[in-house]
Specification:
Elements: E1 4-7, H1 16-25, E2 30-34, H2 35-41, H3 43-52, E3 56-64, H4 71-91, E4 96-99, H5 110-131, E5 135-138, H6 154-161, E6 169-174, H7 175-178, H8 184-190, E7 195-200, E8 202-203, E9 215-216, H9 225-234, E10 241-243, H10 248-252, H11 255-268
Parallel strand pairs: 1-2, 1-10, 2-3, 3-4, 4-5, 5-6, 6-7, 7-10
Antiparallel strand pairs: 8-9
Helix pairs in contact: 2-3, 4-5, 8-9
Length: 269
Amino acid sequence: MERLSLNQATVKHLSLADAAALCVRHGIPAIGVWRDRVAEVGLDRAAAAVRAAGLHVSSLCRGGFFTRADAEGLRAARADNRAAVAEAAELDADTLVLVCGGLVPGQRDLGVARRIVADAIGDLVSYAQQLGVRLGIEALHPMFCADRSVISSMDEAVDLALQFPADAVGVVVDTYNVWWDARLVDGIARAAGRIAGYQVGDWVLPLPQDTLLGRGHVGDGVIDFRPITAAVTAAGYAGYVEVEIFNADVWAAPADLTAAKVRERFAAI
């Protein structure tokens, strides 16, 4: 249990203070924080609340969405990502999760979008290093390629991360997004020394109309977690394991029941 972290997305409707209190009540030592919840109370108060609760911040979600169509949009993305780095530094987060962005609006060229992502991360690296923040590139399932991330596999995420210093840029392994990949174990092995975070959530059927909400509690779906966790461990990752669930039914459940089930499934699976 000392490696368990509750990502705020799992209890979406709770404020940061309430989510922190929930973790304390259930003996969960770390929390994955979302920027919109930080913005509700302000960065200073958010950082103070987490520290007062004695919690470690395993991640800050999220930076990225680099693929803008015009110069003004690119400048806005750059400013927002620098702000995200500063927030991660103040929260002492293990990683700033990057969801890189989909196709450039009005375009169909994947190569252009991926070059924009690489250039934007390169632009952010020196600032992240100055503040001691590690960027974590998260590959998203291919169904999100058009609108959320043109980085869709572990190999793609690792290829991108390898362009930069390991202490500055790593990858986040999210089971929901990568479990399908026949090359996943090899990709994770390539990420040795680069894994900045490990997030778990199950793939449940039938998928809802909004596929983003198709995650379930660990053990409720089709993912075989043991070989993925074994590969992540073999690659040298010994950090927190975040339970991150986007699911309307989970959100509607009492938060204490959700936290209790998170602990139970983490221990069992």
